[in-house]
Design brief:
- The structure is a single chain.
- By secondary structure, this protein is an alpha/beta fold.
- It folds into 2 domains: 284 residues, Rossmann fold, CATH 3.40.50; 98 residues, GMP Synthetase, Chain A, domain 3 (2-Layer Sandwich), CATH 3.30.300.30.
- 28% of the residues lie in helices and 25% in strands.
- Strands 9, 10, 11, 12, 13, 14, 15, 16, 17, 18, 19 and 20 form a 12-stranded mixed sheet that branches.
- The chain is globular.
Length: 502
């Protein structure tokens, strides 16, 4: 386990933490040692200097998980630029919005991608990566840890994507924190399946390199691709979001391949007890780390593996460097067992939304008076409950709570109940206007509608009357956003348009 040094450093100095001849990255082109990683970061930073951009200029990238894409977050920081990674699955309109909103002066991409954009979409400079002309080498920077290093855009499932501003310190301390509590070791091989534009995916690079481990980036099409990569690269650590775990549990895993994994981490949505049971059965050698996070503060909580079986509904307690509080509407501390808003303070809190003071003021506000951390805090809008042992349980977003017959009902609680019996593979619960009750519960499920009677019969036995779904809408597939999460906003809009179930 690496030491928890609270002093942040420029993020581009991460390769210096690894053993020079140890492998830092492995891909189709072969392996890259830490010494080679450091050299290539310097050379790529020198290559970026050809654009002669002022310090702090934004440089966007729209790339799959190439070697350059993995190195670019460090190289842009070393060159004194601000990196704006764009998810490679996004399409022209979304890419154009991010380019315009960020004010990126350069877009680094592939020729085939550049051709999908229109003249008004792109900055004056569009560059295609190549390996020539990288003769200048920039040494590690001495950047101010509070300087802006990256702008990560949220997935945009609740409107236009927002650019979250992250400093060197945010990225560095996030890497140290995660490497510590996940107990990443030099011999670990971490499979990177998440988008590098996703804070969770990018941190896999940084936390692994902070601990001196090996990253294997993977662009996958099917769950089978992940299974093969675990076998081929002797992967020990895998991160995912709930929809990915569902797919992986449906895949065929040779027993010896599943046994290679010793660490599974989850964020981007809560694990249901059924998913926990499935992961524990399929990967018995692996420690399971449920986590809660939000881009505005990177990561907030984790549940220690030894508590997962007894507390599968918990999101755990604060990660290192984070102060997590449960706060009443009046700003006072909620009592154990009382629902309140999760508020995150400390050095992992981002610097706000890029050029959006109004939305920044809504989410980034002074920490509560009782906080030990000063400065700004992220007021998440998520409702949680802290128990007598200091463990937190996610209740739901206040604006998503279903209000039916005077009761406030958590959609996640309904979804968990729906999935617990195995009749459906995935579920999303919504409150829909109803003249008599205020709202009724409608659940969109992935699975076979022939199981609806079994599902209804079971829920009548397990849930009180006010929590019974009024309608089910069955689907072969559910929409996902660019980070692989269920896209609840798109799903609700689709159902409103079709009238199916709403």
């Amino acid at each position: 386990m690496i030491a928890l040094d609270p002093v942040p450093k420029p993020i581009d100095t991460l390769p210096l933490r690894g053993i020079a001849d140890a492998v830092a990255l492995e891909d189709r082109a072969g392996t890259l040692s830490y010494a080679q990683l450091e050299r290539e970061v310097g050379e790529l930073a020198g290559w970026l200097g050809q654009f002669a951009l002022p310090h702090g200029s934004r440089i966007a990238s729209w790339l799959p998980k190439t070697r350059d894409a993995c190195i670019l977050p460090l190289a842009t920081a070393r060159a004194g630029l601000v990196h704006v990674p764009i998810n490679p699955v996004l399409k022209r309109a979304q890419v154009a919005h991010i380019l315009a909103d960020s004010g990126a002066e350069v877009l680094l991409t592939q020729e085939s991608r550049a051709l999908t954009l229109e003249p008004g979409d792109v900055p004056d400079l569009v560059a295609v990566f190549h390996d020539t002309g990288r003769d200048e080498h920039l040494p590690p920077s001495n950047a101010d840890p509070d300087a802006l290093a990256a702008i990560l855009y949220t997935s945009g499932s609740t409107g236009r994507p927002k650019g979250v501003m992250l400093s060197h310190a945010n990225l560095w301390l996030g890497a140290i924190s995660v490497a510590n509590y996940l107990e990443i070791e030099t011999e670990d091989r971490v499979l990177g399946v998440l988008p590098l534009s996703f804070d969770y995916g990018q941190n896999q690079l940084f936390s692994t390199w902070a601990a001196g481990g090996r990253v294997i980036p993977l662009d996958y099409l099917t769950a089978r691709d992940v299974v093969k990569a675990v076998e081929r690269h002797a992967v020990t650590s895998l991160a995912g979001v709930p929809p990915l775990w569902v797919q992986l549990l449906e895949a065929d895993w040779p027993v010896e391949t599943a046994a290679r994994l010793k660490r599974l981490t989850n964020s981007g949505g809560a694990l249901t007890p059924r998913l926990v049971q499935g992961l524990r059965a399929r990967f018995p050698q692996a420690d399971l780390y449920p986590m809660y996070g939000l881009t505005e503060a990177f990561r907030s909580t984790f549940l220690a593996p030894e508590l997962v079986d007894a507390r599968p509904d918990s999101i755990g307690r604060a990660i290192p460097f984070a102060e997590i509080m449960v706060v009443r509407p009046d700003g006072s501390r909620a009592a154990p067992g009382e629902a309140g808003e999760l508020v995150h303070a400390g050095p992992l809190v981002a610097q706000g939304y890029w050029q959006d003071a109004a939305r920044s003021a809504q989410r980034f506000r002074p920490a509560p008076e009782f906080a030990t951390s000063g400065g700004m805090a992220v007021w998440s809008g998520d409702k949680v409950i802290e128990d007598a042992d200091g463990l937190l349980r996610f209740v739901g977003r206040d604006d998503e709570m279903i209000k039916s017959a005077g009761n406030r009902i958590s959609p996640s609680e309904i979804e968990e109940a729906v999935l617990s019996g195995g009749e459906a593979a995935e579920a999303a619960a919504f409150g829909v206007a109803d003249e008599r009750l205020g709202q009724v519960i409608v659940v969109v499920v992935r699975g076979d509608d022939s199981r609806e009677k079994d599902l209804r019969d079971r829920l009548r036995r397990e849930l009180p009357n006010f929590m019974q779904p009024a309608r089910y809408a069955w689907r072969a597939e559910l929409p996902r956003n660019a980070n692989g999460k269920l896209d609840r906003t798109a799903l609700k809009a689709e159902m409103l348009e079709t009238g199916d179930g709403l």
